Amino acid sequence: MLAIVHQDSAWRGWITCEFIQIVVAVCGILPASATAMGIGAAYGIGGGFLLAAPATMIGALVSFGLSRTFLRGFIHRLLRKSARLDKLDQVLSAEGWKIACLFRLSPIMPFSITSYALGMSALSLRAYVIGTLASLPALLGYITMGALTVRSVTSATDASVSWVHTAILVLGGVGTLALVWHLNRVISKILSRHSA
Questions:
Q1: Residues 37, 149: contact at Cβ < 8 Å?
Q2: pTM for this model (two decimals)
Q3: Which of 1, 2, 13, 61 fits a 20 to 30 Å CA distance from 86?
Q4: If you count DSSP H runs as helices and E runs as strands, how many of each does the chain have, helices first?
């Protein structure tokens, strides 16, 4: 009987974590990194990733769907008013999954805001999903940090957590630089075509 109660409790915890991660991915009430670290601390690296990755992707798809349905009329009116925003929309749709991937790698772009921004662009669903997969390595890093933090508390060493954090920061920095460089190059190309 005790095993059944324990299993039921485990399922409730799993569903609660899944729900929280989806809500965070949709509305960004907390940084996605904080919830990922909490899931890693609670469920370990493998279990935490298997729990958080699908929830993050579901949240990203919900945001994409919301921006394509309820917010689409608003963005069309906005694009008609601003030539710059229209050019940015052209860049996003022309570059497809590559630009979505770079946006997902950059830590300066909050996950939920990026989801809505990409959803309001002309980017295809396929390109959006492929680009969003680029956020999973960072998610794994945060889950690993959470799991290692629990181990560090018990073993009194935090060198491994520091190494993972540094790796995530370096990857994010490189992703941000690549995003800025690539956007600049593509926008310059579109502007030169437009002026010609």
A1: yes
A2: 0.72
A3: 61
A4: 9, 0
Name residue, tokens 């509305």: 27
Contacts for 62 with CB less than 8 Å, ≥ 6 apart: 22, 25, 26
Structure tokens at 130: 């492929």
Nearest-5° Cα angle at 130, 191 to 84: 20
User: To which H or E segment does residue 135 belong?
Assistant: none
Q: For residue 63, with 0-12 CB atoms within 10 Å meaning exposed, 13-18 middle and 19 or more buried, which class applies?
A: buried
> Cβ distance 138 to 171 under 8 Å?
yes
How many of the other CB atoms lie within 10 Å of CB of 70? 9
Residue 114 CB neighbours (<10 A): 21
Question: Cα separations (Å) of 89 from 54, 75, 119, 164, 179?
Answer: 28, 10, 11, 35, 15
- pLDDT digits 0-9 by tens, 117-166: 888 877 889 999 998 998 888 888 888 888 887 765 555 455 555 666 66
Q: Which residues contact 14 (CB under 8 A, 6 or more apart)?
A: 43, 51
